[in-house]
Amino acid sequence: MDEAQVQQCARNFISDLEIKDVRDDLSVYVKAANAKVVKEELGKGESGYTITKPNGKHVITVNSLEPEERQRFTICHEIAHIELKLPSSHEEVPSWSYAKRHINEVMCDIFAAELLMPYVQWRALVPKTEPSLDVLEYMASQFRTSFPAAASRYANLADVPCAYVTMERGAIRYAARSTLLRKVGAWIAPKSPIPPGSVAHRLREGGVSQVDTGEVAQDIWFENWDKGLDLSELARHYAKSDTTVALLWFSEEDLPEVETTRFGARVVEDDGLSELTGELTWPGRNRRR
């Protein structure tokens, strides 16, 4: 099951539900999943879990010590486990961390984002302006979710080439890309270091929690990318958790014209063989790299 399939499952789940009040009340989702929610004080880093009773009823327990926005996300995440029938694989890894997380947990996060920030409602509320810190914080407040969750959703649904990158301890963990970037095979490699020259790299080097924006070269972030093109980068560093996030965007006019395979990978042009001239060259003097 890939990201697109999970998104479609989530949209099918909510298609027949009355969701106009989900920004304040998630009970319509809980009821549809044949579940109930219990709030208890759980251990540090434990956001929640689900137990299924013999009668088929699901009991979702969330950590009452965590912020309300985190509890809301946990409820939707656990509903994802129920609806997708994916076993839980938390394994003591914090729910906000992509490091070493099982693919089941990542897929359930994608499902949860669709429930917390429904597509139609999101499109109706998102400001039709340049991306900014104010826009992202506004959308997070409108859907009562975290800044990272809102920023990731923003990148996924953006009409312009846009990506949202999560980094931990100096390494890239996950990148959400808009449709336009996925179509041209734009790729930000997981597990690679935060690229030098980026705003994110500069902020992390500073060692304090801060946010900043700047213009950087597109090929700093994207692999096998054309040179000479710039993008805007809004980065935020959280010193306490050594987590860095970045929103990247540029105009569609600055999108390189590229060819991709049916799997979405970029086709890198090869210089090919030199034209035959009839002249013999000395072996080894002109090697292709």
From TrEMBL:
Lineage of producing organism: Bacteria, Pseudomonadati, Pseudomonadota, Betaproteobacteria, Burkholderiales
Organism: Paraburkholderia phenazinium
Protein's name according to its UniProt entry: Zn-dependent peptidase ImmA, M78 family
IrrE N-terminal-like domain boundaries: 32-153
Superkingdom to which the source organism belongs: Bacteria
A Pfam entry, by short name: Peptidase_M78
InterPro entries documented for this protein: IrrE_HExxH, Rad_response_metalloprotease
